[in-house]
Structures are given as C-alpha cells and as structure tokens.
C-alpha cells in the first residue's frame, strides 16, 4: 500500500521504441496510468510526468516511448509490453508530410500543404494513425484540418455524421480532439451502404467547404488535411474512396495493411498522388459488433452529457405543429415506376416529409442550418442534434433532449436512422 492508503499500481520499465498495451475489459473498472520517469505518449499525445490518467471500460491503449520510460499502472487490465511497433513508419510519414508543409510555406509555386487520406479495412488502426499524424503536426506548431468520413466509428460529432475540424491542440488523453465549431454534415445512418448516393453528395460538399476554409486560413492551408475513412473498401465502398480522393484533391494516400487495396489505388489514382502501403500495429484490437454498438452509444451519450467535463442537456416539450421534419431518401422504386428521365437512385437524395408520431421515439434528429424545405437541405451543414425521448400522441407533443435550452431554432429537422435510449 502507498502511504496515503491507496493501493499502488504495478511498475513497468520500457526500453526506447517499445510500447505498453492495455485493454480495460471489466465492467466499471477504472485503470490509472502514471508516467514516473522518461518520456511517453499515447497515440501522439505526450504524457505529463506524475499526472494520473484514468481509463474506463472499453479503452484500448498503447503507451509508446521513443526514449525509454517507467510507467505505473493501477487497476485490473490485460496488459503487455511490445517491442515491435510500426511507429517508425508512422514517424517517417509525418516527416515527409512536414517537408511538404515546409515547401508550401517557402516556395511560391506550391499552393498548399499535403492532403492525406488514410484508408484500409476495419480495425487496422486508421483512426489511430490519423490521430498520431495530427498530434505530431500540432506538436510542430501546425494547425491541420481533420476530416472524418467514418460514419460508423468516427470521431467528429455523433455516429452518422461526417465532418471537419481545425486541430490546434493535441488530442486530450482518453477524450480526443477538442470539438469547437466543427463543420458537420448529416448522413443519418451508421453504414455508408445504406445510401451511397447521399454519401457521395455530402463528401463532395464537405470537400468544397473545406477547400474554401483553407483558402481563408493561411496557417491551416500550409498544414494540410488528414482524412479518416470508413473500413468498407470493396465495390461501392472503393468507388466512394476514389470519389473522396478526387473531391478533396488528395496528394497522399496511406493504405493500412491491405496489399490488394494498395495495388488497386496505385493503379487508379492519378500519377501525382503518392500511394503508400503501411503495416498495421500488432496492438490494434478487433472490435466485435456489440463493442461497436456500445462505442456508438457512448459517443451519443458523450455528445449530450459530456465525458470528463459533464454537460447538462435540456429536456423540454415541443408541439408537433411547430416542427418541420424531413428525411432524405424515399424507399426505392423500380426504374419503370419513375417519372420520365428520372432514375430510381435519384430517389435516394430526395427530401421526404415525415409526420410526427410514435415512429420518432428514441430517434436522433439533426438540426439543419437550412430554414425551409425550399433551401438546399441536403448540402446544408448541421447545427447540432436532439433526441426524441417521449412522444405524447394525445397532446401531440414530443419531449426532446437538447444541448441548447428551448426554443428550438425555427429550422428544418432531419430524421436519422440512429436511435439512442436516454437512461439518465
Ligand atoms: P480503425 O480506424 O482502422 O477501425 P482504430 O484506429 O479505431 O481502427 O483502432 C482500433 C482499436 O485499437 C482502437 O480502440 C484503438 O484504441 C486500438 N489501438 C490502436 N493501436 C493500438 C496499439 N498499438 N495498441 C493497443 N491498442 C491499439
């Protein structure tokens, strides 16, 4: 026991270029990590010596050290030290991107910093590599833009959204990048196969706006963009990757762990795009369907209630008659039933009015910046999300959970496939 009566954790001594990997599996477990000496980082964020970092159930972490360090770990978890890591490859990528940034800064014929897209199947560490590259860029004084196109396990806003974020500080350990004023577009589903046409439109629009914003921010323009993608890399998923690469005008594609995808992209990308194959880390953990669903729920809970800094969402009633609710995409019809000149797939980006009723219970609604259905709703970004926690048919009202107090802004609401059971 330590002097203050707290049980002391176990000590681990790491050599240079090694990492301590741990996974918190037990329910309601809290694992405490402290850097005792030396230097260490978690996915590119440096640890402060002597500070206690806590990790909850579900955390899958690697504490890496370039110089060697001593760590203390308290609480129940599965852990081991790995000496083989791909961190040197990732650092090399960062160094190459940094050179391109310096060129953009110093040479008049280079207009902007590198636009990098990270691709690969599920569970190869794409999000982690994005985080490492963004953190390293910020630690060099850069302010890159982070784009997340992963609607299933993305890191911006809630699942079902795609978006962009200006990164000015390293990610907080256990939390992620600070989300002040993200640019968010609503897709509404957690799998892109649900509506690839809509996804194409949204990716195109997001790319357009990101380019506009880069034009207006010289420092971000020099720093470039890091794009995370989803793990569906076959058929329509592959076509979507190519579309995203074109829309964002990528310069570099980092392919994690799949030679087939690397070969296809090397063949299909224009000559000036550098396609690089990178190994995945042996530490990346495969996530089960149940774990993914739980992680999505956690993100929504985090959106409304906060994580380490608690938020206090509002709950209030709204009248059905005051709401303009729509969804995007009508049920598919055969081409033969479509009006002349229209294809069935045009239906997938059609705006359909939704009558409020019990069908809305537990659903997430996106608050569009578009004020009326006459505006271009699909390509309007999202101000935020609310959740329907009760439907009162008799009084024709909905109870909603909202980050903002009443009243709701008088804008269009978009119905998402996504549901959330508020257990608070
Ligand atoms: P992808 O984006 O390809 O689906 P992620 O980057 O989200 O994969 O990684 C999957 C999981 O593995 C995450 O929970 C992440 O924290 C964990 N992870 C990544 N790298 C390591 C590592 N080196 N050691 C332990 N866990 C890791």
TrEMBL record:
Residues 311-422 form the Clp1 C-terminal domain. Its main location: nucleus. Residues 120-306 form the Clp1 P-loop domain. It holds the Pfam family CLP1_P. Residues 14-104 form the Clp1 N-terminal domain. It is found in: Nucleus. ATP binds at residues 19, 60, 123-128. Keywords: ATP-binding, mRNA processing, Nucleotide-binding, Nucleus. Belongs to the Clp1 family. Clp1 subfamily. Required for endonucleolytic cleavage during polyadenylation-dependent pre-mRNA 3'-end formation. This is Protein CLP1 homolog. It comes from Nesidiocoris tenuis.
């Amino acid at each position: 026991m330590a002097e203050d009566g707290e049980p002391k954790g176990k000590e681990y001594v790491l050599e240079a270029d090694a990492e301590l990997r741990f996974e918190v599996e037990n329910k309601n477990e809290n694992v405490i990590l402290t850097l005792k000496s030396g230097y260490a980082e978690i996915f590119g964020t440096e640890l402060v010596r002597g500070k206690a970092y806590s990790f909850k159930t579900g955390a899958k972490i690697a504490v890496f050290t370039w110089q060697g360090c001593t760590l203390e770990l308290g609480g129940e978890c599965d852990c081991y030290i790995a000496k083989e890591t791909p961190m040197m490859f990732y650092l090399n990528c960062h160094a190459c991107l940094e050179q391109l940034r310096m060129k953009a800064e110093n040479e008049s014929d280079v207009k902007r910093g590198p636009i990098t897209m990270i691709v690969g199947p599920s569970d190869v560490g794409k999000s982690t590599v994005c985080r490492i590259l963004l953190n390293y860029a910020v630690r060099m004084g850069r302010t890159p833009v982070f784009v997340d196109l992963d609607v299933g396990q993305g890191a911006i806003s809630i699942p079902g959204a795609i978006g962009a974020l200006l990164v000015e500080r390293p990610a907080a350990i256990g939390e992620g990048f600070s989300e002040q004023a993200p640019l968010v577009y609503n897709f509404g589903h957690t799998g892109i196969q649900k509506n690839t046409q809509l996804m194409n439109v949204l990716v195109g629009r997001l790319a357009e706006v990101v380019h506009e914003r880069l034009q207006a921010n010289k420092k971000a323009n020099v720093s470039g963009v890091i794009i995370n993608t989803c793990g569906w890399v076959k058929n329509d998923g592959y076509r979507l990757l190519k579309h995203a690469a074109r829309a964002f005008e990528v310069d570099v594609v980092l392919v994690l762990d799949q030679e087939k995808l690397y070969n296809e992209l090397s063949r299909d990308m224009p000559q000036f795009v550098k396609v690089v194959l990178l190994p995945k880390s042996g530490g990346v953990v495969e996530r089960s369907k149940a774990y993914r669903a739980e992680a999505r729920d956690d993100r929504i809970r985090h959106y409304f209630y906060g994580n380490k800094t608690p938020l206090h969402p509002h709950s209030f009633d709204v009248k059905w008659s005051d709401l303009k609710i729509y969804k995007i995409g009508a049920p598919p019809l055969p081409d033969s039933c479509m009006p002349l000149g229209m294809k069935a797939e045009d239906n997938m980006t059609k705006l359909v009015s939704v009558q409020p009723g019990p069908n809305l219970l537990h659903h997430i609604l996106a608050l569009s910046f578009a004020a009326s259905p006459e505006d271009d709703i699909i390509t309007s970004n999202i101000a935020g999300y609310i959740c329907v926690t009760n439907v009162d048919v008799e009084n024709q009202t909905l109870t909603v959970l909202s980050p903002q107090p009443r009243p709701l802004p008088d804008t269009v609401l978009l119905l998402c496939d996504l549901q959330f059971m508020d257990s608070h």
